[in-house]
Amino acid sequence: MQISLKGKIAVVTGGSRGIGRAIATTLAAAGATVVVNYQRNAAAAEETVAAITAADGAAISMQADVSAAEEVERLFKTVIERYGTVDILVNNAGITRDTLLLRMKEDDFDAVIDTNLRGVYLCTKAALRPMTKARSGRIINITSVVGLIGNAGQSNYAAAKAGIIGFTRAVAREMASRNITVNAVAPGYIETELTAGLGDQVRTAILEAIPLGRLGTPQDVANLVCFLASDAAAYITGQTLTVDGGMVMS
Ligand SMILES: NC(=O)c1ccc[n+]([C@@H]2O[C@H](COP(=O)([O-])OP(=O)(O)OC[C@H]3O[C@@H](n4cnc5c(N)ncnc54)[C@H](OP(=O)(O)O)[C@@H]3O)[C@@H](O)[C@H]2O)c1
C-alpha cells in the first residue's frame, strides 16, 4: 500500500516541535502541502518548514494560539485565502500543567482545558467550513492514553484528553454523511520535550508498564496519523487508536 497525499492541504497545530513536527514532515513526505502552526516558537516552526522544503516538500509556518477564537479565525482565513481549502486537520497542539488536584490552581486547570480541548473545538469548527463545502475531509485529534486510563497529577490533562475522545465521536457522527472522517490518536509515552523531564525512577516504572519495552518516537505516532489522513482510511471514523507499545489494551 502506498500512501499519497498529493494535492492535499494539511494544517498541523503545534507543528513546530515534538510529535507535531514528525506529523508535519511525514504528511509533507506523502505529498501534502503543510501549514505548520505554532504559538511562540517561530524558530522551531521555521526548522520544521526547512526540513520539509529540504526534502522537496511544501510547507509554511503560521502563528496562532489555538485557544483564542480570533487567532484561529485568522489562521484559517489565511490558509483558505492562500490555498483555497483545508483537506486535513491534525489537532496536535497541547500543554501540561501537572500537579495533584488538591494543589491545582484554577489557572492550571483552565490553561490545559483551553489549549487542549477548546483549541480542538475552535480549529475543528473552522476547518469544517471548507470541508463540508468540499464534502470531504480528515480530522485527526491527538489525545493521550491518559484520557483513557487517567494519571495521578494530570486531572486537568486527563479531563481535556478524555473530552477530545467524546468530541471526536460526536463530530464523527455529525460529519459522516459529508464524507468527513474524525478520529483520535492516543499516544502513550513518547520521547519529546513534554516527557524529557521525567525522573529516572518514573521512567523505569513507565518502561515496566510497556510490553514493547521502550518509549515511543514521534515518528511512531506520525505514521498512524498519515495513514488516517489518507484514502486508505476512508472507512474508519469515530475511533481512538492507541500508539503506546501495548501499554493499554482494550
Ligand atoms: N509526548 C508524549 O509522551 C505525549 C503522549 C500523549 C499525548 N501527547 C500529545 O501529543 C501532542 C504533542 O505533544 P508533544 O510531546 O509533541 O509536545 P511539545 O513537544 O511540548 O510541543 C507542543 C507543541 O504544541 C504547540 N502549542 C502549545 N500550545 C499552543 C497553543 N495554545 N496554540 C498553538 N500551538 C500550541 C507548541 O508550539 P510552540 O513551539 O510555539 O510552543 C508545540 O509545537 C500534545 O497534544 C500532547 O498532549 C504527547
UniProtKB/TrEMBL annotation:
It is an enzyme of class 1 (oxidoreductase). Residues 8-193 form the Ketoreductase domain. Pathway: Lipid metabolism; fatty acid biosynthesis. Signal peptide: none annotated. Its EC number is 1.1.1.100. GO terms for biological process: fatty acid biosynthetic process. InterPro entries: 3oxo_ACP_reduc (IPR011284), KR_dom (IPR057326), NAD(P)-bd_dom_sf (IPR036291), Sc_DH/Rdtase_CS (IPR020904), SDR (IPR050259), SDR_fam (IPR002347). NADP(+) binds at residues 14-17, 92, 157-161, 190. It catalyses: a (3R)-hydroxyacyl-[ACP] + NADP(+) = a 3-oxoacyl-[ACP] + NADPH + H(+). Belongs to the short-chain dehydrogenases/reductases (SDR) family. Catalyzes the NADPH-dependent reduction of beta-ketoacyl-ACP substrates to beta-hydroxyacyl-ACP products, the first reductive step in the elongation cycle of fatty acid biosynthesis. This is 3-oxoacyl-[acyl-carrier-protein] reductase. It comes from Roseiflexus castenholzii (strain DSM 13941 / HLO8).
